[in-house]
Each structure stands twice: as structure tokens, then as C-alpha cells.
User: Fold this.
Amino acid sequence: MNYKSEFLNEIKERGFIYQDIEIDKLDNIISKNKITGYIGFDITSDSLHVGSLIQLMLLHWLDFYGHQAIALIGGGTTLIGDPSGKDQTRKILNKNEIDTNIKNIEEIFGKFININKNSLIKNNYDWLSDLNYIDFLREFGSKVTLNKMLTFESVKSRLDREQPLTILEFNYMLLQAYDFYYLNKNYNCILQMGGSDQWGNILSGVDLIRKINRKDAFGITSPLITNSDGSKMGKTADGAVWLNKMKISSLDFYQFWRNINDKDVSKFLHLFTRIPLNEIKKLSSLKEREINEAKKILAYEVTKIVRGKEDADEAMEIANNIFNSNIIDERLPNIKQDKLNLKNDSFTILDAIEKLNLVKSRSEIKRLIKSDGVRINDKLYKSNDLSLKEYSELNEIKITIGKKKIGILKIS
Assistant:
């Protein structure tokens, strides 16, 4: 089925639509008028990670086709915590922690939407902090039933596993519904988008708008994105893949995409790049060794969106130097050490990898060595005594962890 709206056609063809509320009616409206839509973002950390990338790209396409996109920062709701898709109650952050996270996260939105031109960043603390609780319950609490909340999968799954669900978290759902109501009333926002775990919250907001504002409102959720092996997309052995450069280097970010499974290339090109669909079709048809070219394009394009062209160019150049030309690039993480320390074993492979920040813990380094996950100058490191003696007469050595993490030890 083709929609009349360019925006809806774009996100449908790219695989963004999982559930919807009256999308045909929305299509009639959006094909004739510019609308306002929003997505809410948690700020429980000082950076978003690639798990948020699908929502950022949805905002991008809404903005790209001339509609107003609102990136809603949950400065107020993060004080409570969203139960959706979680096994346990989230850690409650204080206001100072949340404000610090907001400052670090806000800049990422400008890479996806035109904030100075049409689209907006809003913080729901601005209106939630002024609510009178008794008045709020009288006006809005009576419009949302616990019966309906208990049918939402995000709540049901918690209760089925006998995980505690607090009144605080039930209030979160009511407040998120209020966010949609508030944006509808004050910004004529008629569309909320989000991940599939937000379906219940979106339904509650739509109901609230229809009951109180007497207006139409719509919702779209995106599918849960997993790797071809079923694992959660964006999670690695080292943890989340962050969007903020202070959390993970642009080279490591680039290499994450460069090393995805062949089966995920087409899906990720559709979801996480701006490459035209006809070009993606050609790239998706590549097989065997040629698929590596598609992976390089994917890695470059995603890095360019998230980190900017300069960082993407540099990451691609460093990766080419290391893996194609076998050049030790000086921009890689590097440390210096006296050869005597290598000879007398006061500086071991554990020390080198730890100081290069390539692995989080020494026990993890030992596990990687045992499982053939560490190479020195492209040869497996197999020494049981963890020594670097045999390399002490070299000027420098390249230490590689797995497929993508590399550092240089300079020996003087």
C-alpha cells in the first residue's frame, strides 16, 4: 500500500512502522497540511546510544518533509522513571544530575532536525513542575483507568514476572499522556511516535486528547530493532554504543557499523542512513566479499550523521590505514613505555591494554587472551606469563582487541 504523504511513504519503505493509530486518516491530513509530531527521550544518562537512533531518524524524516518535529526531553518524567520494557524500577536521578544529562544530550538533536528553522527541543519539566497534584488528579486522573493500564504489555510483562511496579511508575504513564495532551493544546501536535514499548503510553495520550481537547490525535511505533542473531541492537561486550563522542571515539563508532553481520546490512542501511532507496537496493544486492563495500558505506554514512563529516572522514581514513594498508596511524590511542619496564616485567600486556582504555577490566583482558581475542602486530598473543619482553627492542607495537579496538604502545 502506498500513502499519499511523502513522509509516511518514506518511513514505511524504510521499515519504521510497526503499529499505528488510524494511519489512513493521518495520511489524509498530512498529505494536505504540515503537521507537528513529537518523540520523547529519556535522559537517564549523559548520552543517548544507538538504541535511540531509530527515533532520531524518525524525527529527521518528519523534519525533512517540512513538518515540525519536537524532540521532547523528559526532564520531568525522568524524575519518576518509565516502567516500559524494564524488569525493575529505574534509579531515581536528582534534578542536578538530570540537568547535566540534558546539556550533554541536547546537541545531538541538532544533527537530525533543523532547530533554528522549524523544529523544536522542549523539556517537559517546564510544564510538569508547575502542576498542582490535586487539580491534576481531578482533571486527568479520572480519564485514564487502571484497568486499561493493566492490559498494556509493558505493565503486564512486569506483573507476570512478579516484578514490583510502584505507584510512582503508574504516574509516569499518566504524565506521558499529559505531555501529548499539553503539546496538542499548545503546539497543535497531533502525532506521537516512539518505540514499540511506548505503545500503551501513546494510546493513553491519544485517548486523553480525544476526551478533553475533542481533537484527533495519532500514533506510530517503530519495531524493536535486533541484530540477525536476535541480540539487542547497539549492545556489545563493552556495553552500549554511545552517540556522544566523549563516551566512545568516532573510530570505534565507525567500526561498530563496519563489523555488523552481513544479514543486517540492508536493514540498517534503510533505517540509519539518508541514502536514497534505489541506491540501498543496489547495495543490498551485494554478496560475499562485495558486501564489505556496503558495510563501509553504512559505517561512513551513520558516522557522518551522528558525528559530522570531518569525524567520519577521519574514522574511515584511520580504518583504511590500519586494515587495508597496514599503516600504524598516529591518531590511534597510544602510550609510551621504557623498554626496561618491558624487560623486567614491571609493565605487562595487562598494563598496556588497561592504560590504552581498550578493555574495562584486567579480568576481562585475561579472558580475551585465553579466547584468542588479543593480537600484537597482527599475531595472536599467547604468552601465559603476560609478558611483553619479546617486544622490548621494537620501537612500537600494535595491540588489537577483537576486530575493532586498536592501540599503539611506543617503546623508548
